[in-house]
Design a protein that fits this description.
Radius of gyration: 25 Å
Number of helices: 4
Shape: elongated
Helix content: 25-40%
Strand content: under 5%
Largest sheet: 2 strands, antiparallel
Strand order of the largest sheet: 1-2
Distance between the termini: 86 Å
Number of domains: 2
Number of strands: 2
Length: about 130
């Protein structure tokens, strides 16, 4: 009976489901693992950062995919960069590549210090 429970569980303590009458499985209990989360209080500041339009679209799309805010995504990227760690895994990199195609972002890291902002074109008032 114990070995049957462990086999069903996939890992120790996940599910207690012994074999019942006529080979039917009855669920007795589900044990939920407890997660210990460290909470760090911070103070955020509103910022008016200007950024290349297509890069911003890719970042917003990635934040939406991960169901986090753009600010949370940027904080995570920066904290990883400060430690010399890669902020994205293989799956996120695939999604970034898809978003770059969608938003026609053809820039790479070598372009980062070569940007020159276009002067905005004035719209003429309708007469």
């Amino acid at each position: 009976m114990i070995s049957e429970r462990r086999r069903l569980a996939g890992w120790r303590g996940a599910v207690s489901a012994p074999i019942g009458r006529q080979g039917r499985r009855r669920l007795r209990a589900v044990l939920v693992p407890w997660y210990i989360v460290t909470v760090i209080e911070i103070e955020r500041a509103q910022t008016g950062v200007r950024m290349e339009k297509r890069i911003l679209k890719v970042l917003k799309g990635l934040a939406e995919i991960h169901d986090i805010t753009l600010g949370d995504l940027l904080e995570g990227i920066v904290l990883h960069a400060f430690e010399g760690k890669a902020p994205f895994g293989p799956e996120s990199l695939r999604k970034i590549a898809e978003l770059k195609k969608i938003y026609e972002l053809d820039l790479d890291a070598s372009a980062s210090h070569q940007f020159v902002e276009r002067k905005p074109t004035r719209k003429r008032a309708a007469r």
